[in-house]
Structure to design on (279 residues):
């Protein structure tokens, strides 16, 4: 039976978590653009000071010649681990962004039928499809805030080409938006339903969706890896003379064996929490 006393726990994020997310975002900018920040930050860049200081304490960046913040090799290693994690999100979670819970259908079953990007987007956002990425993340024990943060990066919601992005990266209302998405999304409990005399628990439904979505993803990737390939949040635009460490490439889908990630016995390897670990 459903738990009538269930209380939906609100997702939150601490200042430390914001610094970690913002730090990785900024580190990627510094490495892949590449972009150099001067120690004496000017204008809007002054809002980045707490993030840069945090990165400096972590030894992911260093100060060169007493005047510039530049990435360190340790920072590149951290970004590489994060990019692998980000790739898992791009390749794996999109398939759960449009699920018809009533009929058990996935929008991505028709992915290759649409030649026009806008037509595909319109179909994906049909009211019969539900976005269950947060519920699947919850089922897998993954922090939903990180999932939405990654989706915001992918959608360029932090807008590094727009004025004031530096303030938004740590203190802006974008974090309220991220938490709003997390807390308003369908969660595992809400996937449960009554089937005759039996209550089907949300975790059972989530597992079924996970298995079906994982199988579908395998077919999609086998058919055309390039069409589903993600991209690095930043692509070019800087001066190679400013490059201190090698850029970090976005991993191809062939680097991952997603069939393993839907197997319960292999699930602890799905989302290894090591991109921000201290070494």
């Amino acid at each position: 039976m459903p738990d009538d006393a269930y209380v939906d726990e609100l997702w939150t994020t601490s200042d430390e978590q914001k610094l970690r997310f913002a730090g990785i975002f900024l580190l990627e900018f510094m490495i892949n653009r590449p972009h150099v920040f001067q120690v004496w930050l000017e204008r809007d860049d002054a809002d980045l000071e707490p993030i840069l200081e945090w990165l400096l304490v972590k030894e992911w960046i260093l100060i060169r010649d007493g005047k510039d913040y530049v990435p360190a090799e340790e920072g590149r290693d951290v970004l590489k681990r994060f990019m692998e994690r980000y790739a898992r999100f791009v390749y794996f979670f999109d398939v759960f962004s449009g699920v018809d819970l009533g009929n058990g259908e996935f929008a991505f079953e028709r992915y290759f039928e649409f030649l026009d990007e806008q037509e595909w987007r319109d179909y994906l956002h049909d009211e019969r499809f539900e976005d269950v990425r947060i519920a699947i993340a919850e089922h897998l024990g993954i922090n939903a805030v990180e999932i939405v943060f990654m989706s915001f990066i992918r959608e360029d919601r932090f807008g590094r080409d727009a004025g004031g992005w530096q303030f938004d990266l740590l203190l802006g209302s974008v974090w309220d938006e991220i938490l709003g998405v997390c807390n308003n999304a369908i969660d595992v409990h809400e996937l449960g339903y009554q089937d005759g005399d039996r209550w089907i628990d949300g975790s059972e439904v989530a597992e079924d969706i996970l298995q079906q979505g994982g199988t579908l993803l395998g077919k999609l990737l086998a058919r055309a890896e390039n069409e589903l390939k993600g991209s690095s949040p930043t692509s070019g635009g800087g001066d190679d003379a400013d490059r201190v460490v090698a850029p970090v490439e976005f991993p191809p889908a062939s680097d991952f064996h997603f069939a393993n990630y839907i197997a319960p016995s292999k699930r602890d390897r799905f989302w290894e929490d090591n991109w921000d670990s201290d070494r």
Observations:
- The first strand starts at residue 37 and ends at 38.
- The longest helix spans residues 202-223.
- The beta strands are 37-38, 61-64, 68-71, 99-100, 105-106, 193-195, 198-200.
